[in-house]
């Protein structure tokens, strides 16, 4: 009976095998679906969907990308020369020469005729010091000179008189020699008095301080009524050592620190392109004018100065600027 039960539960071997046709139909459907997906997922060269995956060589970058500051700057950036850009670094705009005007002697500031930011010309009077003492010395020196000239006149007359008497054998040769010596002393005294007068007049002229250059007043370092002198005698509360600072706005440079690994890319007189960070769409020509003779050991850098050609109001000293160090123009290959 058990064998009959087991025989009834046994599966016919013919029913265990799945028809092969059904399996191939399933695999074929899957392959067709995958092929269709790949076809529709791959855009054609003219398909706008290519922007989503990044621009191709034939498709320009989308306009939306230029809304960023970096993209906007590169959009207006002029084309690099044939040699290209070797290195781009940031630095600070500086005046080539900053001149601080100081008095030649200790004095009291009486008048300052300019303010910070004013333009000045070469020779323009900018400061006047109190000149009462110098004027008094001029008067004193003029009196000494007049007295010396009077003594000289008397010595000249005495010499002529004694000379005539000596010729007549009335005066001795010694009296003539003494008269001649007094005459020479009188002449030397006049010369000394004249020199003293010229000196005090020079001191008087120094009380009027003029600008040595045509430029702009960067800073006022003293005020009317303050005591100033050529150099401080020590301490933070000493007299001022300068009256004002001047610079020529048409003579600007950019100071940059170059890593030692990039130094082979830099050379004197190398052409550069300068762009102020405040106005990234403005570009100025320049060239390497100075390479520091000593590096900064802590930073591992060397300071380079780039002279700016024809600067204008868009370049403000002490603000940041970007400098592109340009490569020489590539030589044309044979046949070109």
CATH superfamily of the largest domain: Efflux pump adaptor protein, beta barrel domain
CATH-derived topology of the largest domain: Elongation Factor Tu (Ef-tu), domain 3
By helix and strand content, what is the structural category?
Answer: alpha+beta
Q: For the largest sheet, list the strands in their spatial order.
A: 1-10-13-12-11-14
Number of helices: 6
**Overall number of structural domains:** 4
Strand content: 15-25%
Largest sheet: 6 strands, antiparallel, barrel
How far is it from the N-terminal to the C-terminal residue, by CA? 104 Å
Number of beta strands:
14
Q: Assign the CATH class of the largest domain.
A: Mainly Beta
- Please state the second-level CATH architecture of the largest domain: Beta Barrel
Query: What is the chain-wise order of helices and strands?
Result: HHHHEEEEEHHEEEEEEEEE
Please estimate the helix content.
25-40%
The dominant shape is rod-shaped
**Stretches where pLDDT falls below 50 for ≥5 residues?**
47-76, 232-237, 330-336
How big is the Rg?
A: 46 Å
Arithmetic mean of pLDDT: 81
Describe the structure.
Helix content is 33%, strand content 24%. The chain has 336 residues and is an alpha+beta fold. The chain has 4 domains: 2-41; 77-97 and 248-326, Efflux pump adaptor protein, beta barrel domain (Elongation Factor Tu (Ef-tu), domain 3), CATH 2.40.30.170; 98-130 and 207-246, RNA polymerase II/Efflux pump adaptor protein, barrel-sandwich hybrid domain (OB fold (Dihydrolipoamide Acetyltransferase, E2P)), CATH 2.40.50.100; 131-203, Helix Hairpins (Orthogonal Bundle), CATH 1.10.287. The radius of gyration is 46 Å and the shape is rod-shaped.
